[in-house]
Amino acid sequence: MALATPLRLRRHLLLPAGPSPATHRALSLRRGRLLPASLSAAAGGRPTVLVTETLGSAGLDLLRAFANVDCSYELTAEELRAKVSLVDALVVRSGTQVTREVFEAARGRLRVVGRAGVGIDNVDLQAATEAGCLVVNAPTANTVAAAEHAVALLAAVARNIAPADASLKAGKWQRGKYVGVTLVGKTLAVMGFGKVGPEVARRARGLGMDVVAHDPYAAADRARAVGVDLVSFDEAISTADFISLHMPLTPSTAKLFNDETFARMRKGVRIINVSRGGVVDEEALLRALDNGTVSQAALDVFTEEPPPRDSKLVQHENVTVTPHLGASTIEAQEGVALEIAEAVIGALRGDLAATAVNAPMVPAEVLSELSPYVVLAEKLGRLVVQLVAVGSGIKGVRVVYSSARDPDDLDTRLLRAMVTKGIVEPISSAFVNIVNADYVAKQRGLRIVEERVFLDGPPEVPLDSIQVHLANVESKFAGALSDAGHICVEGKVRDGGASHLTLVGSLSVDVSLEGNLILCGQLDHPGIIGRVGSILGKMNVNVSFMSVSRTAPGKQAIMAIGVDEEPGKEALKLIGDTPSVEEFVFLKL
Ligand SMILES: NC(=O)C1=CN([C@@H]2O[C@H](COP(=O)(O)OP(=O)(O)OC[C@H]3O[C@@H](n4cnc5c(N)ncnc54)[C@H](O)[C@@H]3O)[C@@H](O)[C@H]2O)C=CC1
Ligand SMILES: O=C(O)C(=O)COP(=O)(O)O
C-alpha cells in the first residue's frame, strides 16, 4: 500500500526497452550495463513527453527541466496515434483512452505511460506490457480530494443542495420540497477500503455516522483502527442508508451494482459514486431510482464521459451530478502532477517510483546488490542459446540459483527476466525488458522453471552461481551437454563484479565473459593449446582469457578462450583443422 510520501519511496527497475529508432537506443538496457544511461546523456538529445490533459504547473516544470514537453490537449484518437510514435513518454489523466491501437501506433518508441491519478482503467495494461511499455500512476496525491468530494456529495444529497440551489435560482422558494435527512446515526457502507475508502469512513465517523465497509482484500484491523467493521457485500448493501463506492473498475467490479444487487438494498438507499461509472449498471440505477429503491444518487463518474447530453440518469430529478471532479482540487492536481512527473522522469532514467502498475518493483538496494548477477544472467542466456543446434526449438529453460540466502531474501524476477532477454533477443526481433519478459517467454512457448540449491555459509553474498539448462534440444557443441543430456552453462560473479563462465556441460572452466568466446572440444593431448593460441596470434586476434578442463588425462577436454576480436573464417577453419580438436564453436557475448 502506498503511503502519503510517495516521492520518498523511490524504487528502481530496469527500463523498458523496445524496438526503437537509433536515437533512443540509450534507453534500452544494454548488455554489460545494469542501468541504462539517461536519455539526455547518451542519445545527445532530450526525451519527449506528450501530456494530453491539464497537469499541475509544478509537475510540468519538473518535466520540462528534463524533457521536451508537448502539451496537446483534447486530441482525437487519430491525433493521439499520430503523435505517440514521436514521444518517449505519455502523461494522461482519466480522459485519454490509451488503447492497444495507441501502443501499436507507438511502434516501440513509447516507454512510459504516466497516469496522473489513480484509476488506470483507461490504459490497456496488457497491450502496454506486451509492448514493454511501463505504466506508472500517481496513486496517493488525490486521495483526500476524492474522499472530500464523496463527503461533499453525501451531505449534498442528504440536504438536497443541488436541486434547492437550482430551484431558488429559478425564482422559487420551496422550503417544504427540500426537507432533507440527517446523517447522524445513519449507516454508511463504504464499498472498497483502499486509500479513498478509509478517508471517507473517517470523515463520516466524524459526522456521527455508523460506518461499515466491504472490501474482499482489506485487512480487518486497518478498518477497526478507524472504527469500521468489515462486513460481507450482502451485509453492507442491505444494512446501509448511504452507500459510497470506492473500488476500481475491473472485470470483476464492472456493473457490480445492478438490478439484482439494487433489489437487495434498503428501500430509499442513497448512493454516492466517486469511483468509476462502470461499476454501476446505469440503466439498472435508473430503474431503481424510478421505482424508489434508490431515493437519491450522487454521481461524479459515468460509464461514458462526458455522458450523452440527453442522459436520463444525469437529468433525473433525484440525481446530483458533477463532471468527474473528485481529484480536481488545486492541491491534489499539484500533488499528482509532481508525483507523476517524478515517476516518469525516474522511469525514463531507469529507476522507478513505487508506482509501477505493470512491472515488478525492485527496491534500489536489492537492485544494486543484484546488478552484477543481472549482467551474468543475460550473458548466460545469450551463451546458452548460441549452443543450440539450428532447427532445434527451445521449449524448457531451467535456471538454477545456488545461494546461501533464504528464498525470501532473494528476488529472482530480475534474473529470470534477464535470462529470458539473453535467450530471446539473439534469435528474434523481440526486445525484452523486465516489463514484458514473462509475456515474451510465454508467447514464444518458453517455459522457464527456476530452482534453488541451498548452500551452507554466510548469506552476505546473494548468489554463488547461476546455471542455465536447456532440456530436449540438440547442441551444436556436444561438450555443452551435461551428463543428463541438457545443454548447461554456469556462471559466477568474481571479485569486482565480473561475470565468469564456470561450467560448460559437465566440465568446469573459468573464463571471463567479456568480448567473445571460442569453445573447443578436444582430446587432451600436449601442444593443442599452443597451436590454437598461435593461430589466433597470427591472425591478430587477442586472447583475453583461456581455461582448459578435462575429464581425465588424455581424455575429453574443453578449452574456453576469451577473444577480443571476432576471428575470421580462415582462423576458425585452422582451429577446426587442428589435430585432436573435435569440435569448436564461436560465441558472441
Ligand atoms: N472521481 C475521481 O476523480 C477519483 C476517483 N478515484 C477512483 O476511486 C477508486 C478508489 O481509489 P483508491 O482508494 O485510491 O484505490 P485503491 O486501489 O487504493 O482502493 C481500491 C480498493 O477497492 C478494493 N476492491 C477491489 N475489488 C473490490 C470489490 N469487488 N468490492 C469491494 N472492494 C473492492 C481493493 O481491494 C482496494 O482496497 C478508484 O476507482 C479510483 O479510480 C480516485 C481518485 C479520484
Ligand atoms: O485518479 C483517479 O482515479 C481519477 O478518477 C481522477 O481523474 P482525473 O485525473 O481527474 O481525470
TrEMBL record:
Enzyme's top EC category: oxidoreductase
Pfam family of the protein (one): ACT
Entry's EC annotation: 1.1.1.95
GO biological process, one term: L-serine biosynthetic process
Signal peptide residues on this chain, from the entry's feature table: none
InterPro entries per the UniProt record, alphabetical: ACT-like_dom_sf (IPR045865), ACT_dom (IPR002912), ASB_dom_sf (IPR029009), D-isomer_2_OHA_DH_cat_dom (IPR006139), D-isomer_DH_CS (IPR029753), D-isomer_DH_CS1 (IPR029752), D-isomer_DH_NAD-bd (IPR006140), NAD(P)-bd_dom_sf (IPR036291)
Record GO terms (molecular function): NAD binding; phosphoglycerate dehydrogenase activity
Catalytic activity line of the entry: (2R)-3-phosphoglycerate + NAD(+) = 3-phosphooxypyruvate + NADH + H(+)
Keyword tags: Amino-acid biosynthesis, Chloroplast, NAD, Oxidoreductase, Plastid, Serine biosynthesis, Transit peptide
PROSITE patterns: ACT (PS51671), D_2_HYDROXYACID_DH_1 (PS00065), D_2_HYDROXYACID_DH_2 (PS00670), D_2_HYDROXYACID_DH_3 (PS00671)
UniProt xrefs under NCBIfam families: PGDH (TIGR01327)
Protein name listed in UniProt: D-3-phosphoglycerate dehydrogenase
Taxonomic classification: Eukaryota, Viridiplantae, Streptophyta, Embryophyta, Tracheophyta
